[in-house]
Design goal:
41% of the residues lie in helices and 25% in strands. Strand 3 and strand 4 form a beta hairpin. The strands form three sheets. Strands 1, 2, 3, 4, 5 and 11 form a six-stranded mixed beta sheet that branches. A five-stranded mixed beta sheet has the order 8-7-9-6-10. The two termini are 43 Å apart. It is α/β, with parallel strands linked by helices and 365 residues long. Among the domains are: 84 residues, D-Maltodextrin-Binding Protein, domain 2; 88 residues, ACT domain (Alpha-Beta Plaits, 2-Layer Sandwich).
Length: 365
């Protein structure tokens, strides 16, 4: 058999498989529509029907990765299924998602990574605006950054949770690559100022010290805003994403300039409803303790006694008084788990203030 004949056989096989995949995807979409019909059928009069279930999607994606036999990588296969689920969910209910904008930010990338491309994303000026959009009902969910592996916690996000009644419904871990972007006609000697978000400037501090030690660094509201300014101003550069470069017609003068190659930012999905257990979850809580000796020990000791693994603890000044602090704690497990519910009850008793910010599936992708 000749090369052309062998290729023809394989291409015919691919066409046949494509036909089957096409049929199965549409069959899955019709099933999703039936799910929506069943939910509406059994909903009480005036009840808000919830179509998006974070715990269900996490379970599906874990199954996809567990049964995958290659040659596609587990995460590649999961991303394909994420998009299929995104399109199917849009048939049940189109979702509106608010994110820290403008267009081209890493938060927008996190929103698309978590929800897929079928959602309607709306960029907001500030983290407070993202919370406000979800609280008002203008958006179904919001996406906000909470911590970076290099620069640490995003304090504004934590502080906003103190007065918000929204729940954490999910998390996204996004590998962050920063690029130095300039206009197409820019030259090396022309760069007199570099715009970026304060966190990004911090994540590239060593690289900037080595390559542009005497160039002014200007912090702006977002990397996308930095790219917008660099596109308009001569002598300006921006530290931003590849998406921002495409959006504002900039070129990458230097790629992947972050100081740590494993630079990762964690984002939270916020929404109005609580999330059921997915089987592999995290819980985030807010605890305000009394200003007395051993206060932090009293907060942490119940976790040790119950054998619960904490993944993060942060402290923030409390509005209730000078030198009083609020502790934000993440730990493994769901608030409804048999070994965790008693610990939370204990913390409610010993705390000045206690709030369960939400239990949610661990990031799958």
């Amino acid at each position: 058999m000749s090369e052309a004949q062998e290729l023809e056989v394989l291409r015919n096989k691919i066409d046949s498989l494509d036909n089957e995949i096409h049929k199965l995807i549409n069959e899955r979409a019709r099933c999703a529509q039936e799910v929506a019909e069943v939910k509406q059928k059994y909903a009480a009069p005036g009840e808000h029907v919830v179509f998006y279930r974070p715990e269900r999607e996490a379970q599906v994606l874990r199954k996809v990765m567990a049964r995958n036999e290659g040659p596609l990588a587990d995460e590649s296969m999961a991303r394909l299924f994420r998009e299929i689920m995104s399109q199917c969910l849009a048939l049940e209910e189109p979702l509106n998602v608010a994110y820290l904008g403008p267009e081209g930010t890493f938060t927008q990338q996190a929103a698309v990574k978590h929800f897929g491309h079928a959602v309607q994303c709306a960029g907001q000026v500030s983290i407070a605006d993202v919370f406000r959009e979800v609280e008002s009902g203008n958006a179904n969910y919001g996406v906000v950054p909470v911590e970076n592996s290099t620069e640490g916690v995003v304090t504004h996000t934590l502080d906003t949770f103190v007065h918000s009644n929204l729940n954490i419904c999910g998390e996204v871990a996004l590998r962050i690559h920063h690029h130095l972007l300039v206009r197409q006609d820019a030259t090396e000697s022309e760069i007199r100022r570099i715009y970026s978000h304060a966190q990004s400037l911090g994540q590239c501090r060593l690289w900037l010290d080595q390559n542009y030690p005497n160039v002014e660094r200007i912090a702006v509201s977002s990397n996308a805003e930095a790219a917008r300014r660099a596109a308009l101003e001569s002598g300006a550069a921006a530290i931003a994403s590849e998406a921002a470069a495409e959006l504002y017609d900039l070129v990458m003068k230097s790629a992947k300039i972050e100081d740590r190659p494993d630079n990762t930012t964690r984002f939270l999905i916020i929404g109005p409803q609580k999330t059921l257990s997915s089987g592999d979850d995290k819980t985030s809580i807010l605890v305000s303790s009394r200003n007395q000796p051993g206060a932090l020990y009293q907060v942490l000791e119940p976790f040790h006694q119950a054998g619960i693994s904490m993944t993060r603890i942060e402290s923030r000044p409390s509005a209730s008084g000078t030198w009083n602090y609020v502790f934000f704690i993440d730990f493994e497990g769901h608030a409804d788990d048999a070994n965790i519910a008693p610990v939370l009850d204990n913390l409610r008793k010993i705390s000045v203030d206690f709030k369960c910010l939400g239990s949610y599936p661990k990031a799958v992708l």
